[in-house]
Write a structure and sequence with these properties.
Number of helices: 2
Shape: globular
Helix content: 10-25%
Strand content: 25-35%
Order of helices and strands: EEEEEHEEEHEE
Number of strands: 10
Strand order of the largest sheet: 1-2-3-7-8
């Protein structure tokens, strides 16, 4: 991840979990699948996993308008549609579009 104005790192238990590139189009997982939270190993799809918690925080920040419009097109360099995170993002209020998942402030 590049340290750039407008890029964000989401921390879980003070450890980096997600990196959102400037512009909100690309998301990278920094926490590994199956990492532990509070001593319990969690799967990436679990909403209590580091990634699940980080996605919830990211969606909350997006809904509050802190990040502007999020239009995620890529996760870990691959298309978001069909990715492991697509279902979790849709459950958090993102809307599916032609090549992206979008979350607008206030939604």
């Amino acid at each position: 991840p590049a340290r750039a104005p407008g890029a964000y790192v989401v921390l879980v238990d003070w450890l980096p979990a997600l990196y959102l590139e400037r512009g909100g189009r690309s998301l990278s997982r920094l926490a590994k699948q199956g990492e532990q939270v509070d001593g319990v190993k969690r799967d990436v799809a679990d909403d209590q996993s580091p990634i699940g918690l980080a996605l919830a925080a990211l969606a909350d920040a997006g809904r509050r308008g802190w990040l502007g419009k999020l239009a995620i097109e890529r996760v870990d360099g691959k298309p978001v549609l069909g990715s492991q995170l697509e279902g979790a993002l849709l459950q958090l209020g993102f809307s599916a579009g032609p090549r992206r998942l979008t979350l607008r402030a206030g939604s």
